[in-house]
Design goal:
The protein has six helices and 14 strands. The strands form three sheets. Strands 8, 9, 10, 11, 12, 13 and 14 form a seven-stranded antiparallel sheet that branches. Strand 10 and strand 11 form a beta hairpin. The mean pLDDT is about 95.
């Protein structure tokens, strides 16, 4: 199924598919990193959980009419996706204030954003993924103004669909990060992953954190909370 390793990131390995030149195999790793790679650890089972969670979520997004790179889950830790060239932007949507925005702008924890707040970061590890504005995004990437508007609209649609999915399993979607890529036909597709590594997910009743913050802050067991997300998705989605 897989041929050459094309790229190894912090959480996934990306292989060329041996069956189709326009497809990739994403292989989810057990590594967890935080604070731009400063904190690192390994968790047996994390790759499987994120592969299964992200696969279920992409299927649901597809059903909601949102075009993504996802084709199918291959096995417990791998999935097949359309090959896209990733646009080096991290698109963050926030429904509630927490994390970097509270420190950067002094906004109080849990203030709710209506409409949801969209932020752009430049995907560059060496620069520490800085916050950028639209003009920077146009300067630093090859996207057009129309494509930037399209990316923002899609991110907001994804937010609405994800809020509904998580609400149905008793979870508040606090914030999340998306990446987009261009496929062989020039279409812009939601790419990368949607998982507890890239979303903040709080239990609606208890406010318990069910995402990577338990690792970032050392407040809980990553595998237990990721398994909880998968269990709820499997039962209700
Ligand atoms: N996020 C991510 N990858 C990054 C940075 C952020 O997936 O490199 C996600 C993070 O999990 C959260 C949202 O984007 O759901 C907003 O993160 P924030 O800017 O608050 O950064 P943090 O406080 O994690 O540094």
């Amino acid at each position: 199924m897989k041929a050459a390793l094309l790229y190894e990131g912090k959480a996934k390995k990306v292989y060329q598919s041996s069956e189709d030149e326009h497809q990739l195999v994403l292989s989810y790793k057990n590594d967890a990193t935080a604070f731009n790679g400063e904190k690192k650890s390994q968790f047996e089972g994390k790759g499987r959980l994120n592969n299964e969670i992200s696969s279920l979520i992409f299927q649901r997004l597809h059903e909601a009419g949102i075009s993504t790179h996802f084709i199918k889950r291959l096995d417990s830790t791998q999935q097949i996706v359309q090959k896209t060239s990733i646009i080096p932007l991290e698109v963050v949507i926030r429904n509630l204030a927490t994390g970097s925005i509270t420190k950067r702008l002094g906004i109080k924890e849990k203030v709710s954003f209506t409409p949801p707040l969209l932020e752009l970061f430049y995907k560059d590890d060496a620069l520490g993924d800085p916050l950028i504005n639209d003009e920077h995004a146009l300067l630093l990437t090859d996207i057009t103004e129309t494509e930037l508007a399209e990316i923002k609209d899609k991110a907001k649609e994804v937010n609405a669909a994800l809020q509904e999915i998580f609400q149905s399993i008793g979870i508040k979607l606090v914030d999340f990060k998306l990446e987009f890529g261009r496929n062989k036909d020039g279409e812009i597709l939601l790419s990368d992953e949607v998982s507890p590594d890239t979303c903040r997910l709080w239990d609606i009743e208890t406010n318990e954190k069910l995402d990577k913050d338990v690792f970032r802050q050392g407040t809980g067991d990553l595998i237990t909370v990721y398994q909880e997300i998968l269990n709820r998705l499997e039962v209700h989605v």
